[in-house]
Amino acid sequence: MEADGTLEATAPLFSASMEIPYDLRFMAFALTWTAGLCGLAGSDRSEADALRLASEETLTFLIGSYPDAETWEQLRVEFSLQAGGLVEIAMTNAGPPVHLSRIPRYNPQEPSESEMDGLWYFLARNAVDDLTFTNLGWDGWRAVIQKRLAGACFEPKPSAKALDPLPEGKLVFATRRATPEDAAHLVDLIYDTYRYTYPAKHFYHEPMLRQALQEGGIVSLVVEADGAIVGNVSFMLSSQTPRCAYTGSLMIKRAFRQSRAIIHLLKEIEKVISSGSLNADLCYAEMVTTHTGSQKAGAKTGYVPLALLPSLYPMVDFRGMKTASIDRESQLLVIRMIAPPQIPVLYLPVRHHAVMAPLLAQAGVPCRLSAEEAPPERLPTTLTTKEDLDDGNACITTTRLGQDYALRLRKRIYAVKAKGIQTVVVLIPAWRPIPPGLEDEMANMQATFTGVRPISAHEWYLVYVALSGPVNFELIRLSDPLAVDLKDHCERLFDELVAEAPE
């Protein structure tokens, strides 16, 4: 068979891979490794010999076709056992193109000297059920060998179930403030929840987390079950926004997600916020939108939505939870006011009043909305920029809006995107009249309005987001009806931004 494709495309029962240089001296190791995996899959002697023959002939051809390979180049061999006993051995090759039409067709009935260069393909192809070569474009070529085993006997190892908790009546929950000595337990908990995909990197480094807990940069609340930490939430304080506490790392150990641990933790959150011990005007959080669980938990403690942040982070891995398969995660910005808002008038373009008025009312912000315009100050614009190259996002805050704001913002957005930043959040002061033509200027920067964000009782910002890629709004799941209205509003704005005029 010469067409691209394989017999089946199913999730493997197991898979493994290795890489070797383009050197025939390493081939014996690859063949021995493949033979061992064949035995693990349940092949008999004849099936293992057939797969070894096909692998040996194909590897010999691929390595021999690329004598001038660089020493750093590797040939990748992947072994997998699919459902139904189908063994698949794939070899990803960065060597020259494979032209099957140029391989002589060896005829065993009437062999000739001119056909001997095709003997390897004849032997490999007839030893197994299928041998295909797929053109991967810039990624080279892939040879795929397939053979179905008659008596495959491999049974996947059952996933290790989290420790079943004791019956609710016997569990003793307690909440307390975390100490620096809890840092190692919190690192384990973050891994149990997200593996290595949680955006806050310090939660994976015990010494860094220990220091933050000790110095008060992070205030963590933990819930324990019979003395063991099973849940956490943290309040992070920043010198840049001292009146605004970021709430994050809300997580419950997988074994206790159906217990009352989350209820105890939510009660402790309410207690800490109500006590005023955080010395902040408000708390805010960025809730994931691939599921609504954390949004509902936040709503129980008074957090309400004010902005949507599309495509803000790389996709996180929620262990034990099926979520949409996307590259980047959109976030819902939610707040909980602690001090009374001190912003009698909030200025924003009139087209956003209808969607923002009920959101602000729900947040307990009794301000008047105004679309009044006024020229910016006759002073240079000042900006602060916070970049996260790992997460591919940046936040640009206009601390002073001058007459050159559009030019300064355009250059700053271009500068951060040139570093590989995919999502740029721009904050525009909302406590003073908006500059004329703000919407058009932001559209010229490929930025659209997505909500408002406070950083203190009297400092509120309009939120604009400039993206480098598309957003699938259908995959953004929201539990608050007003947040759904905001999402629909943002989607219309994004559609307008990319819409082309009819020819």
Question: Which properties best describe this structure?
Answer:
single chain, 503 residues, alpha+beta, seven-stranded mixed beta sheet, five-stranded antiparallel beta sheet, 19 strands, 28% strand, globular, disordered N terminus
Task: Provide an overview of this structure.
This protein is α+β, with helices and mostly antiparallel strands and 503 residues long. Helix content is 27%, strand content 28%. It has eleven helices and 19 strands. The protein has helices at residues 27-41, 45-64, 119-127, 183-194, 206-215, 261-275, 293-300, 353-362, 405-418, 438-444, 481-498, and strands at 14-21, 74-82, 86-93, 130-135, 141-148, 173-177, 218-225, 228-236, 244-252, 282-288, 304-314, 328-337, 345-347, 368-370, 382-388, 393-400, 423-429, 447-454, 460-467. The strands form four sheets. It has a seven-stranded mixed sheet, sandwiched between helices. Strands 1-2-3-5-4 form a five-stranded antiparallel sheet, covered by helices on one side. Strands 15-16-17-19-18 form a five-stranded mixed sheet. Strand 15 and strand 16 form a beta hairpin. Helix 1 (27-41) runs antiparallel to helix 2 (45-64) and helix 2 runs antiparallel to helix 3 (119-127). The longest helix has 20 residues, at 45-64. The two termini are 47 Å apart. 36% of the residues are buried. Mean pLDDT is 88; it is low at 1-9 and 162-166.
